[in-house]
Design goal:
Layout (H helix, E strand, L loop, with lengths): L4 E5 L5 H12 L5 H12 L4 E8 L2 E13 L4 E11 L8 H15 L4 E4 L6 H10 L13
Parallel strand pairs: 4-5
Antiparallel strand pairs: 1-2, 2-3, 3-4
Bound molecules: coenzyme A (COA).
Coenzyme A binds next to strand 4, helix 3 and helix 4.
């Protein structure tokens, strides 16, 4: 269970761990240099949050969240950009812990909406986000450039 799981803010020493999580999440290996340059830049951004979940001292999951001010809401919104739990730790409540942790920050920061975009192929994750309380309200169109 998630009872002995702790959540902490990620820092530059977590680059390797989060890089490996992203490779598994996406099923492909981005260039490490490109990954590092984006990750280190985002760590400096006060609107960008990365959290690591640790169990018995081992990093088992992470979440990335971004806050932005959007004109059409004339307000700040928070979006979960990435979330990954190691397969052997899924179903233990760790995703839910990360959900509540990021949602609390979104509320503290005065965000009007909390969002997540999830690929339709991730059927299990879609079920998870629905269960957390997100409603399917938008269609996201993507074009590869
Ligand atoms: C989606 C994901 C983050 C969920 O994390 P998790 O730690 O396994 O989820 P939890 O154990 O916290 O589950 C919380 C609740 O959602 C439910 N749930 C979790 N996965 C579910 C699923 N596939 N279908 C239905 N319910 C699900 C759990 O049963 C639990 O409810 P309960 O407390 O009533 O039992 C995790 O499975 C994952 O990393 N998936 C692969 C990566 C991914 O697709 N990420 C999302 C892209 S942004």
């Amino acid at each position: 269970m998630a009872s002995n799981t702790t959540i902490r803010r990620a820092d530059s020493t977590d680059a390797e761990t989060i890089y490996r999580f992203i490779c598994r999440l996406e099923g492909e290996d981005p260039t490490r240099e490109e990954f590092d340059s984006i990750f280190l830049k985002n760590l400096e951004d006060p609107d960008c949050y990365y959290f690591i979940a640790e169990k018995n001292g081992q990093s088992v999951a992470f979440v990335g969240m971004q806050i932005q001010s959007v004109l059409h809401h004339t307000a700040r919104i928070a979006e979960i950009i990435e979330m990954f739990v190691l397969p052997e730790h899924r179903g233990d409540g760790i995703g839910e812990l990360l959900y509540w942790h990021t949602k609390d920050i979104a509320q503290e920061r005065g965000c009007k909406f909390f969002e997540v975009a999830c690929n339709n192929v991730r059927e299990r994750a879609l079920d998870f986000f629905s269960k957390m309380g997100f409603e399917k309200t938008h269609c996201k169109f993507t074009e590869r450039l």
